[in-house]
Design goal:
By secondary structure, the protein is α/β, with parallel strands linked by helices. The protein is built from nine helices and 25 strands. The longest helix has 26 residues.
Length: about 500
């Protein structure tokens, strides 16, 4: 049986410019055996893994956040200088294993430089104080001659690193955090950190702690002395792998993300300004096996549909979302895994790669006419308060962009687990466009830990001027690029 969907792209109606940093990544030293940093991006001695670097270059990572819970107990000074002189500490936050500090500030920034990715550092607002934060900023960015800049030079970096984005606090609304505080108290402390960090380097952009709890957002946004460039939100889906109905709730989770985005954007309109952008600086889908959280469960084909759906949601909020950091970049919940010394690509890898390749430029409005279903997620996507609420999601989702060369790219997701979908696509008012490329990611089952990417250009049928039709496999993601004849010579 085949389902149907009608898609209409409106090139004259836009959501805004897509910031390529929404395809960003995240690293944190979580439990040692999760191998996100050691055994992931580097070896036990802090030496970068060249095979991982080469694979991440293919993915074209635009920004990497160095942060999270761990950074609120992290002493940055212990992660610089000669490696044989760096102290070994217990992992104070996660409580499992040790931190040998072989991967520190210079190693992280070297990683970013090698990948041509923008660095984003979250300072220690929990056990650290203002002077510690200023020292980290001074070490990284200050161009003058000071004790710390001399130390940076002695450590092999003569020029400033010029880290552009700094986060002040992490999940300060959470009782598990060392920077935990009521929103007004957090905002007042943020004001102090922000004031002096901006004095030291007026060029930096700051990320303040926001939330999907709207009371928190109102309180902090009305207490900030000067608004930050970005307001952080964290969203996590949950995949209960051994539960019936998991697939249907998992691929519907982007609709729950969309609802949360809508609420936070409303808060920005009410209490801030359009100049404050959102940073979804932590997001992913957590795997639970026997109802127990695990970062070691490899990503599956169904997780790729979730990720693609979240990207499409961010496109619809292109005017508001500037940064997103998927948790994590290597191992854990990542697009790539290091297994027995070999770099393995999960089904997420090509989703990140192909969205980066195709879905840039101006986000266009797409009307989707398709059947769908209502489901209640197994858990909330972010806030720990209250039960999850039902969401409605269509089996087919789509996003479109007008790229710099004038071409139009469209991504179509068929979320149906078992049925192909006959999609009719119309580009409103663009009869001169013709298909230049079609790429599709498929898998045998939604549980597969590998996926196949193939060219489907010849499988797309032009019905009439500006109208195309294609039958898309169940649980698949398809990218199409269309171009006018006048654009081909650009």
């Amino acid at each position: 049986m085949t389902i149907r969907a009608d898609l209409t792209v409106h090139p004259d109606r836009t959501y805004g410019e897509i910031d390529p940093r929404i395809y960003g990544q995240y690293i944190e030293n979580v439990e040692l055996d999760d191998r996100v940093i050691y055994g992931g991006v580097c070896d036990e001695n802090g030496n970068l893994n060249e095979a991982v670097i080469a694979t991440l270059r293919e993915m074209r990572v635009p920004v990497i956040r160095f942060g999270g819970n761990y950074n609120d107990v992290y002493r940055w000074q212990e992660g610089i200088g000669p490696r044989d002189q760096r102290p070994v500490r217990p992992n104070y936050f996660w409580g499992k294993g040790e931190e040998n500090n072989q991967f520190g500030t210079d190693e992280f920034l070297t990683l970013c430089e090698r990948l041509e990715a923008q660095p984003f550092i979250s300072i220690n607002m929990g056990t650290g104080d203002l002077l510690e934060a200023l020292g980290w900023l001074e070490y990284c960015n200050y161009p003058g001659k000071t004790t710390l800049t001399d130390l940076r030079k002695a450590n092999g970096r003569p020029a400033p690193w010029n880290v552009p984005v700094w986060g002040i606090g992490n999940e300060a609304w959470g009782s598990w955090e060392t920077c935990y505080a009521p929103p007004e108290e957090y905002a007042r402390k943020y004001n102090m950190f922000a004031q002096y960090m901006r004095k030291l380097d007026p060029s930096i952009h700051l990320v303040a702690v926001g939330h999907t709890d709207r009371n928190w957002n109102k309180a902090v946004l009305t207490t900030f002395a000067r608004l930050p460039e970005y307001l952080s939100v964290h969203m996590y889906g949950h995949s209960f792998i051994d539960h019936d109905g998991n697939y249907e709730q998992l691929v519907a989770l982007p609709a729950a993300f969309e609802r949360e985005f809508r609420n936070v954007v409303t808060d920005l309109h009410l209490y801030a300004s359009d100049d404050v952008k959102l940073a979804l600086d932590e997001w992913n889908v957590r795997h639970l096996v026997n109802s127990k959280l695990t970062r070691k469960s490899p990503r599956r084909a169904q997780d790729a549909l979730f990720v693609a759906g979240v990207f499409n949601v961010m496109h619809r909020f292109a005017a508001n979302v500037a940064i997103a950091n998927y948790v994590t970049m290597v191992n854990g919940n990542a697009p790539i895994r290091v297994v027995d010394g070999q770099v393995m690509r999960t089904p997420l890898f090509d989703v990140f790669r192909l969205y980066q390749q195709f879905m840039t430029g101006t986000a266009l409005v797409v009307d989707v006419a398709a059947h769908g279903y209502t489901v209640t997620p197994f858990d909330r996507v972010s806030s720990p308060h209250g039960p999850a609420e039902p969401v409605y999601v269509t089996y087919v989702d789509a996003s479109a962009t007008r790229r710099a060369d004038g071409s139009i790219a469209i991504t179509v997701i068929n979320r149906h687990r078992d049925q192909n979908c006959l999609v009719t696509l119309q580009i409103d008012g663009q009869a001169g466009l013709r298909l230049m490329q079609g790429v599709q990611q498929t898998s045998n089952t939604v549980e597969d830990t590998t996926a196949t990417v193939s060219d489907i250009t010849t499988a797309v049928t032009p019905l009439s001027a500006g109208v195309l039709q294609a039958e898309l496999p169940a649980h698949s993601i398809t990218w199409l690029v269309l171009q006018g004849r006048d654009d081909e010579n650009r």
